[in-house]
Amino acid sequence: MLIFEKKPFLLFLGILITAFSYSQVRKITGKVTGPDQTPLEGVTITVKGTSIAALTINDGSFVIEVPPTAKVLVFSFTGMETQEAALSGSSPLSVQLKNKEGQLDDIVVIGYGTQKRKDLTGSIATLSSKAYKDQPVLNASSALQGRVAGVSVTNNSGAPGGEVKIRIRGANSVNASNDPLYVVDGVALSSTGLADINVNDIASMEILKDASATAVYGSRGANGVVLITTKSGATGEAKIEYNGFMSFNKPMKTYDLMDAVTYAETANLTAGADVFPNPGSYAGKTTNWQDLIFANSVTQSHQLSVNGGTENAKYYVSGFYINQEGLLANSNQKRFGVRSNIDLKLTKRLSFGINVYAARINSHNNGDIGSKGNPVTSALTWAPTEEVYDSPGEYNRFGISPIWSNPYMIIKERVGNNFSNVGIFNGKLKYNITDWLTLNINAGLDMNISKYAFLNNEWISPGNNASGQSSSESYTFQNSNILTFHKAFGNHDLTATALMESTSSNYSSFGASGSGLASLSNGYYNLGLNTAQAISSGYSNWALLSYMGRIAYNYNDKYLLTATVRRDGSSKFQGDNKWSNFPSFSAGWKLSNEQFIEELGIFSNLKLRAGWGITGNQAVGPYSTLGLLAATTYSYGTTTFSPAYTLGNPATPDVKWETSKQLNVGLDFGFLNNRLNISADYYNKNTSDLLLFTRIANYDGGGSYLKNIGKVNNRGWELMIDANPVAGKSFNWNVMASFSFNQNKVINLGEDSMLERSWIGAGLITNSIQVVKVGQPLGAFYLIPWEGVYQADKGIYKAGDAMYRDVDGNGSVGFEDRVITASATPKIQWGLNNNFTYKNFELNIFVQGSHGNKIFNATYAATAIPTSDVKFINLADAANYWTPSNTSSTWANPGSTNKSWVESTQFLQDGSYVRLKNVSLSYQISKDILKLASAKIYVSAQNIATLTRYKGFDPEATSTAANSDTDAGIDLGAYPSPKTITVGLQVRF
Amino acid sequence: MKRFNIYIFSAAVMMLLTTSCNKSFLDEKPKGSLTPGNFYQTSKDLAMAEAALALQLNGAFNVVEGVHYGGDDITSKRSGNKIEFSDFDVFNANSSNARMNDWWGYFYKTIKSANSLIANYENAVSATEEERNNAGGYAYFMRAISYFYLTRTWGEVPMPVEAVPEADRPKASVQEIYDLIVADLQKAETMLPDHWTGNASQNGIDIFATRGSAKSLLANVYLTMAGWPLKQTDKYALAAAKAKEVIDGKATWGYGLLTNFADLWKISNKYNKEAVFACYYSNDVPEWNWENGNMMAPAPFAPDYEEGGWEDGFGEIAFYNRFPAGARKDATYQKDYFVKNDPNTVVDWQHTLQKHPYFLKYRDDENVDWSTHTANDWWSSATTFIIRYAEVLLIYAEAQAMSAGPDASAYAAVNEVRNRAGLADLPAGLSQTAFRDAVLEEKGWEFTAENGVRWFDLIRTETVAQANALRDPSEVPLINQPDDATHTYYWAPIPQND
């Protein structure tokens, strides 16, 4: 077996070490190559136990003078396993380095410090950039999808730079945000987000999942923490790398809609009159609105980086340009930016580093999160009998149905541009006060200065052209001061950390807009041309002050103990409620270092971990408790704006932190010299004092007030398997699998047992279709049970009318008949990543799945039922409606004089899916062939196949906000993700 | 080197101290927003609160609600998305019917804002006493008119009088609600001005309620209290007296009838002297509450058959047939319909798709191209009249007749309205009930499909079933029968949401 081939080699090595321990001073030469036999440049060779070092040059060769006492050389190189070679007489040495696989010796970033992976007691997963190396990954969130157990990633919107929903171990909060905290090189992002950073700058991401790991982030750790470490320079000559790819995007699927003749016939039935006097005349005149709004688009990405340095000064500098066209015509996003990471060793004890990242993001018509009249719902419901133009150049503005304007006109004529300047800057000072005491001072800033500008021309805003601009600035300053004590004595190893941190965030905005634009020739640059003008501005700020202490203790490399406590004060709460404490404890037992386990000879690693901790959530907007007035404007019937103020939500000074208590038990197994690693974790998380905006009855004026009520439980388990089943000289196979099972349940809601949510899409949906209910998961749907069609007349119902269950038995069907039906929260999520290398070829196959959730497909409903917005139906399936001669149909006869309900279970669809996310094949051309550089070319395909029963465009796409789980899983014109084919090139100089 | 260490240390310590010693670091300072603590202080604050009240009531009257479709003046087709209007028309509406939510929601939003202003207007110490009183009076008026619509539509409803939410608020009795309305209006008629200044006065017309509006509304409230469900007939005299105050003082407030009924509905007359109280809209500004819906027209968008449109409602045939011919009828109903916007293919209402007459008065004359009958927008700048001077005259005529008898002043009032409509005087010597019935009929013609004026008269006079008995056989048949003795279907079901 291949697996055991190392053993004789090690034995041989051992003999060599012994044999040559008495040799003389000499010059050693040799050559270092990588796993693919290519020479490695810049490999550091040190004589073990000394500071004598040398580097390999570009052909991989090296020369080093070693003293007589030297016995072993150590070869180290970024991304490769550090290897030792005994000094033999037979110079030159030939050393082949291996890619890092077993990660147990890796240093893991744990938040205000680092730890070796083998010493971790909390549940922390690491995602290295290697996991997605040949894939056209445009942002960090798509890198995370399916690759880390316990992390759920859903592409809510397929728009370029669209919203992504990321959850770590389920959703805790009903109202406050459930988004994890992202920390880039020690800077907790606030003004910027995960999508703003350049994924190619990321060296690794550490995902802190359990409370014992996240409690060091206290009030911001409840939803898990993603620690992002960006790349840094490695010593040696400058290494230049170019990465580029081009993707071709097209829709994954389209709806099957009626042709114009069927539409006209059905419309006549619905109207009960001949709205279309001659439906047959529309034969061959069907307008396919879907084809018009969806475009085959192209994405290109170019990345250039250079890194290098000396022992005292290292640099990593990169630049990128991405141009992503949207699936919806006339929409795109361009991003470009630079990063410079510099690390300087000023003195023996003092080092200084500065990371600077700045990027520009230009989005054009990119705001389609999903709403009832957006181009997606519009295109699906627009009558196929309508023509695009009334006459050449003159759009057919309004059709017979729906009330929304021509979607193609909207898509082509609208102008809504967003320009963002984002920056993440941090300076870090590290001072080794003594060998065992270190002071780290980090100062960070993340900022977002953006501008939105729009122009409504004659087509968008007839007779009343308009333009406007709005700008906003958001700055978050963070200062962390960390004192770290570390000392090992005998079998004891103790690390203690103390932190004092302050964060403050400022947001201000300014907007000016107007209507009655006198001339379009200046675009949106001359707002003064507007006759009616309005200005607005806003301001908000929040601050957080924190103290944290942590002790990590390791006894005999067997027993591990970590205890932390964090105290946070938040400006968002008032008086005594500002402050709260967040403690945690965790322990680990390295069973594989125990004699009785070693004797079994099964495990190369076995560790039991357990932890408990409390984290908090203050993720409500600033001033949420103050009862601010709501600004509005009034016209007095004229064309000028005058300010007006209405009462906002009531002040709620008693509101305090939402807290989560989490228990985690985990087992790490390593077999066959860690070629097979399995991590299994069980967790149980209770979130209480939920920050909840409780709906105020309409008779009290509506709105909501913030309360701490109730409790949500998340429990589940997750499994990560990392295996290397075949490790040959030419053929290698790596498998990484992640499985997460999560059960989410509302335990109580204070005085209430159920809270109805507000809803989106008024005019289409007229009442709450989602509730928070005790005993149910978040995102529970609340719908009228649909039971097909009446086969015979019954009471006021005629045969062919839609049939609903009269749940309360009051003799009529209405919202009082709604019942809980499933939830939008998935139960199982998994990913399977396979990597095959054969000589210079590498094949990646990545499959990802999500199960157990339902989606309310309002987009589909809009095409299938007459509503106040959409007069006539358009769905091909619904054309097969019930008639006395077609009694097997479950679609109501359009001529029905009884109401069909959108808010019914008829439109609740299974959201489970299995998706072939990526297949990529790459070929490595070695430097021997190209002389100047090594190169890799690849071709890949994303979202090629999806197994799902969902009837919409994309089971991942929803119209509900990514930060909410109580309002979730509703598809109302959601922007689908594309299917893409990519070709890419990577060159290393 | 040692010295360098000390610098580092001191810098770190300084950093720690600067933040932790700054006690206000965690204070919230909402510099960009007004809070209840810094509002209601100046006359400008009061003006902003008044504007918000107007805006919220506007929300109740810029689209059509179904709750008054039980009246014999308006009906709807029973198909597609109009079924919920039809459900009110055929007495089949349940608590899930969405065509009543705007009234329920916006009247209560108005009440919440009014409650807040009532509680705070006296705190505006830097405003003049007059400004404070005007603001308070306006809030009392807006609360009263909101409850007046609420109780006439739903009967017993929750009655918050403070802007503090209360879970499971009990319903107040109809008597309690009217007591509050009367008390509020009595305050309003003393606290409100005769005329507003500034933005609240446009083209010499008061945008906000005045003393005249309060008295007019109070007259209607008394008249309504005299009928079902309270049946306090002693209120007829009070109604007559209040209406008389308005008629006698019409010069004070500048009230009067426009010469031509048709002129009322022209956008160019959006501010006119007949408006005792109205909601004013503007379609030229991009804010929903500012615009008036145009949903009853057979209008807006071609190319539907005939003139396209959403036809949220159209005229009931029997009522149309009884409607006396003349200028008023011509201004109320559309006469000619262009098939597919073709001016050469003109049909009458009997030959339209729905075979019903549409309301011309709800067609925005600015947005319609009358050469083709195409409209380019279904939002308009039209004014929604809540109280017209014509109503004050008819309230007086009825109340005077029911309290003192149909005397000359009662005749004069009703005849003023009839004459403007191009009709002759009512025959002299009518009995009290005959006169009352004639006035009610007159009110029906004058206020056809005007946000429930007809419907509220029918329930007040317990004649819903009687009126619906005349329903034309070609209409959608009634699903349930209203009963004038047991008053079934008089009140709308409380919305399911609450």
Polypeptide structure, described:
The complex is a heterodimer of chains A (989) and B (498). Chain A is mainly β. Chain A has a domain of 95 residues: Carboxypeptidase-like, regulatory domain (Immunoglobulin-like, Sandwich). In chain A, 7% of the residues lie in helices and 48% in strands. Chain A is built from ten helices and 53 strands. In chain A, the strands form twelve sheets. Chain A has a 22-stranded antiparallel barrel. In chain A, helix 6 runs parallel beside helix 9. The two termini of chain A are 37 Å apart. Chain B is mainly α. Among the domains of chain B are: 119 residues, Serine Threonine Protein Phosphatase 5, Tetratricopeptide repeat, CATH 1.25.40.890; 94 residues, no CATH class. Chain B has 16 helices and twelve strands. A two-stranded antiparallel sheet of chain B has the order 1-6. In chain B, strand 9 and strand 10 form a beta hairpin. In chain B, helix 2 runs parallel beside helix 5 and helix 6 runs antiparallel to helix 7. The longest helix of chain B is centred in the first third of the chain and has 26 residues. About 1% of the residues of chain B have low confidence. At the A-B interface, strand 24, strand 26, strand 27, strand 28 and strand 32 of A face helix 1, helix 2 and helix 4 of B.
How does CATH name the architecture of the domain at 2-96 in chain A? Answer: Sandwich
Q: How many strand units of chain A? A: 53
Shape of chain B: globular
Order of strands in the sheet with most strands of chain B: 1-6
Biggest sheet architecture of chain A:
22 strands, antiparallel, barrel
The CATH topology of the domain at 40-65 and 100-192 in chain B comes to Serine Threonine Protein Phosphatase 5, Tetratricopeptide repeat
- Give me the secondary-structure category of chain B: mainly alpha
Query: End-to-end span of chain A in angstroms?
Result: 37 Å
Strand content of chain B: 5-15%
Determine the mean pLDDT of chain A.
87
The CATH architecture designation of the domain at 40-65 and 100-192 in chain B is Alpha Horseshoe
- β-strand amount of chain A: over 45%
Q: Could you tell me the mean pLDDT of chain B? A: 89
> Which residue ranges of chain A are poorly predicted, with pLDDT under 50 across at least 5 consecutive positions?
1-23
Q: Uncertain runs of chain B with pLDDT below 50, 5 residues or more?
A: 299-305
